Amino acid sequence: MSRSVWKLPFSEISSPSLALLRKAGRRAPSPTSNDGRGEHKTKIWSRRSTVLPQFIGGSFLVYNGKIFIPVKVSEEMTGHKFGEFATTRKRPTHKLSKRKQTRKK
């Protein structure tokens, strides 16, 4: 069931955080960045927040329950939730048997 039209999209990211995003382009250059421009990454614990059009081009660190996953927002991501881009589960890797390992070499 989708959210009512009269309600705005849900986002727990406060307006001061949005102001920081806008200022990110005018920050002093950091020695670690390649292009000479300091990149501001906002940490987000709320995976249920909707990606709004104001976030396009911004960099975020989305918490997956253990670590922060870097997410760069593009136009296609608007309307989705931040949690969709930071998986909480590890992909399974199956061990090869010793016979198969020797054949591959």
UniProtKB/TrEMBL annotation:
InterPro entries: Ribosomal_uS19, Ribosomal_uS19_bac-type, Ribosomal_uS19_SF. Its main location: mitochondrion. This is Small ribosomal subunit protein uS19m. The gene is rps19. It holds the Pfam family Ribosomal_S19. Coiled coil: none annotated. One of its GO terms (biological process) is translation. Residues 21-42, 85-105 are annotated as: Disordered. The keyword Ribonucleoprotein applies. Belongs to the universal ribosomal protein uS19 family. The keyword rRNA-binding does not apply. One of its GO terms (cellular component) is mitochondrial small ribosomal subunit. Residues 88-105 have a biased composition (Basic residues). GO terms for molecular function: structural constituent of ribosome. It is found in: Mitochondrion. Gene3D superfamilies: 30s Ribosomal Protein S19, Chain A. Keywords: Mitochondrion, Ribonucleoprotein, Ribosomal protein.
